[in-house]
Amino acid sequence: MARPDRISADLVDDLTRGAALLAAGGASPAAAAGPLRAALGERGPVPLVAAADLPPEALVVAVGAAGPGPRAGPGADVAARTAVRAVEQRVGARCAAVLPLEIGGASALAAVHAAAVLGVPCVDADGAGRGFGRWDVSLLALAGVAPTPVALAGPGGDLVLISTADPQRARALAAAAADTLGGGAVVATYPVAAARCAAGTVDRSVSGCLDLGARLARDRADRWAGTGIRPLFTGLLADVGGAAGRGTATVLDPGTPGRALRLDFVPTGLILATEDGVPRAGVPDLLCVVDADTGTPLPATRLAQGPRVHVVTAAADRRWRTAVGLAAAGPRAFGYDLDPPGAI
C-alpha cells in the first residue's frame, strides 16, 4: 500500500470509518469529522510524512482526544493550538510535526486537526496501533519516552499542564482534568525527537487507517483481504447488559442452535470474546463488532439486541505481547483477572 502524501478534506470520511474500527469498541469518532473537514477545507491538506523524513532532532508531539474529540466551532482550533503550544513552551522547542496518540477513535482525527491548525505535517504512525481509550497505554511509554509535560486544553482555551516524574500520578491528574474540561478537550503529550519515534510507534498506521476506512465503504466479502483483520464470528446480537463499568453481549449463530460468542467490554472498548468458555480473542489484540448490513463499526456501549453483526479481530503490534506490554494492555490492565488469548 502506497503512503498518501497528504490528508485532504475528501479523505475525512475514510479516516473516520477506519478510526472507528480501530477504536476496538471504543467511542465513535464521528463527532470530530465535521470540525476536521472544516479545518482542512479552510487551511488545505495536511502533509503526511514518515518520521524518518524529519530532521532527527525535530520535536514531534503526540496529540489525542481527551474525550469525544473536537467539536464544531472555533473551540476545536483553540483546544488543539493551546495544548500543543503549552508543550512547546515547556520543552523550549517548536513542534515540527504531530503524531496521533493512538490511531483508534477520535484521537486519530484530533491529531490531524491539530496539524492543520498548526500548519505542520502529521506523522504516518501512532503510539498504539489501535485504540485503547487511555492516553497512558502507549508504545511510546514502553519505549521509555516520558509522557510529561502533558497539556490538556478545552475549547474555551482552559489549560491544564501536568509535570510529574510519576506516570501513575500523571494519569490520575490527566483523568481528573479531562473530566473537568469536558467534551472537546485535546491532550498533547509524549514530546519526542523524530529519531526516537520508530521505537515507540507503529509505522504507516494513518495510511492504514485510511485504507481500512475505504474498505469499510465497500459492500464486498473480500474487504479484509491483506489487512490482517480476521473474521471471528457472525450472528445476531442478543442479551446485552452490564453494570459497574463492565458489560457483556451475546452474539448468536442463527445457523447453529446453541452456538454463541460472548463479548466482555468496558466503556473504552471490547476486552474479550469467548465461545463455550474458551477465549477466542481479546486485548491487547483488536476486537471489533461491525454491523453486517452497513459495515459500520459499533461502539461497545451502544450494542443493542437485534442487528446481524460480524465480529472481527486482528493481532496487536508484537510489542504489546511482551511481558511489559501485556502488563499495560492485557486483560488485567482493564480489571479482568485472566491471561490474554494466544497471539493471533
From TrEMBL:
Q: What are the residue boundaries of the S-Me-THD-like C-terminal domain, all occurrences included?
A: 169-339
Report the domain of life of the source organism. Answer: Bacteria
Supply the SUPFAM superfamilies for this chain.
CV3147-like
**Position of the signal peptide:** none
The record places domain S-Me-THD N-terminal at: 12-163
* Name of the protein in its database record: DUF917 domain-containing protein
Species of origin: Actinokineospora bangkokensis
